[in-house]
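Why predict the complex rather than its parts? Because the way molecules touch one another can change local conformation, and only a joint prediction can capture that. The input here totals 848 residues.
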Amino acid sequence: MSYRQDIAGCLADNCKAGVTAAELDDALRRAAPALPKLATMQRNGSLPLLRLPARRDDIAQIKSLAAEFGKFKDVIVLGTGGSSLGGQTLVALAPPGRTRIHFMDNVDPHSFTLLFDALDPAKTGLIAISKSGGTAETLVQFFACMDWLSRRSAARTIVITEPKSNPLRDLAIARKLRTLDHDPNIGGRYSVLSIVGLLPAMIAGIDVAALRRGAGAVLDATLSAKDPRDAAPAVGAAVSVALNQRHGVVSTVVMPYVDRLAHFGLWFRQLWAESLGKDGKGTTPIRAVGTVDQHSQLQLYLDGPADKMFSLVMLAQAGKGPRMPAKLADPNLAYLAGKRMGDLIDAEQRATAQTLIRNGRPTRIFTLERLDAQSIGALLMHYMLETMIAAELWGVNAFDQPAVEQGKVLARQYLGEKGRVKAQ
Amino acid sequence: MSYRQDIAGCLADNCKAGVTAAELDDALRRAAPALPKLATMQRNGSLPLLRLPARRDDIAQIKSLAAEFGKFKDVIVLGTGGSSLGGQTLVALAPPGRTRIHFMDNVDPHSFTLLFDALDPAKTGLIAISKSGGTAETLVQFFACMDWLSRRSAARTIVITEPKSNPLRDLAIARKLRTLDHDPNIGGRYSVLSIVGLLPAMIAGIDVAALRRGAGAVLDATLSAKDPRDAAPAVGAAVSVALNQRHGVVSTVVMPYVDRLAHFGLWFRQLWAESLGKDGKGTTPIRAVGTVDQHSQLQLYLDGPADKMFSLVMLAQAGKGPRMPAKLADPNLAYLAGKRMGDLIDAEQRATAQTLIRNGRPTRIFTLERLDAQSIGALLMHYMLETMIAAELWGVNAFDQPAVEQGKVLARQYLGEKGRVKAQ
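Output of the joint prediction:
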């Protein structure tokens, strides 16, 4: 497996506020039925996201489009939430020097002014993604970019949306743009291994076959586990939910010690919040980055309310990066002499994990030997499975987001009015 | 005033889980002594951050250095936490086309490889900031950049640190680098209006006089208020603490509807967490961005645990940005016809605020008529004062961060060992 999960720091034996063996047993027993249920849904095709890791039939088309768009200097990806965060997560791992991908996930006029001023429409491709095809933000972005690309738009735009007629698809057809199907049965926040994540990733130079391989290994190991204790996502879900239900944990902090995983933290944040935050249940996901947030959030984490679970994502970095001088005159700096930058981040991540645990803050550790397409695929699949299993434990539907409709209706209503916000 | 605070959506009259009039009265009564106390500390100079808005004597030096560094194509700013987040907040508001500022606040070897590959040392300036001069991350960054700049370093490096001897200052002196004093009595998270924030901001083209003017107006209005009810930061602190103490609010979400304020959210997050997260007290700050997080967090915010307070930062954007076609054939798109991008974000921010309040989620609204140096100065000062007043209400010291020392000691210990993390 290309990652390792260690939950020792979440157990009462090692951490004052951790779960007891009995609590963990109970949660695992309740989580157990989720595994055969997921296996059935994979087999009968009712949850197509579980078939994505094994798919190969869609690669040729994505590859050809990626080769075409890889010739552009810049590619703009329109879309928000699940249409954007998976792609952002993958592209953050891309090698430098390729086509630059700009994920525009907001409707801030200033950001579009800066974008249009900085790019050359003659050297830019456009990908617009909206599952429903009715997302107001994406439609407004789309119109703005169509104007900017002008007559060039038909040749260099791809629209990804559901196959059935919808506003975005109808606009694309009227303008003779290429359209690709978003699987109607894969929700945005579970779409990273579909064309939604794969097309931007492949343009940026990510090995999408390795990505799916990494995800597939975690999926297979989980669904074939005889005991939920052997399925890392089930163990993660059991610990997460038990800490909430028995120990007052209300927030869950994911803190990678790798800059390239900062976007992964945002992807996780949507997955966890939208899938589980319903009926008054769920925990609040928080994205942190190590070591940066040691200098921002660690005081709170260690000495504020004991209401958080921590998941540190560590990468083996020792021995990497710039080397410090072998001799340092200042005795206060002796600990740095001859060390490398990677030695410091390595020591910091281990020290922070230990400090959290010693202070009674339940802490799980993910360890990656390498950060590549395969290991990010594994991590993404781990969290999708953990989220679905946690939904079983909380008794909520992991696939809907019923509460957000009210605000959309109200926004349309306000758009019809003349009012605007006023400061005095 | 260049911003307006509206707490109506945090009151029980308008929001089910809001504070009652009696609870607010009580909290304001308890907050009241903080105002004359702060006024005294301003007068006798014991809290020098309160004198920064009125300072002009330091501008000439910063201006001259900014002019010099403004000639570089790129400037790297080393430092983490309070040495970085204030500058990041200000530079995010800078006009495009100036010197690019790269805030390096981590020790990820890969990020430094990318940085050094992308920049030309002959066209790059360096600013290293550490108040104590002993921050391991900043020292390691410093050594790496010294090597990279090589013989050029002396001419193009500025070190900002406390006046007393410390590792970074001693290194700077040995290498004949220019050093500037970090006021020893202004903590990093309160340093944005000092040279720490102002130097990067001025290089990037921010009007720092307007910044201080905006901050000064809020400070003066607050310290001269006869009644804490007339001091916006006192009202904000009273509501925030009362929601925590009386209504089970454990998290506080700051959600600007402006991309350029995304870094402000990170600055706030440190200020609030490090100042208040101690002795088991405080609330957990969460940075969100609208409308982006409507498609990621809003489901949780509306229908998950009712344990959050929201502060939406709205900018008057109606009438701005690209315009949609005047006629749209699809009746489902009629609501967008002829509208501008700014109309949509304007409607979204108001609709989300109303939806949160209707769902019983206490919501405060900040409104900015413009986003400029003056209004960001006002917002920064508002939050510094609100944080200090909240500390009085919770009975904690807003200026220390005692819990983080343990991890630092452990990291040094680990650095001395040969161990490293291993995945299996």
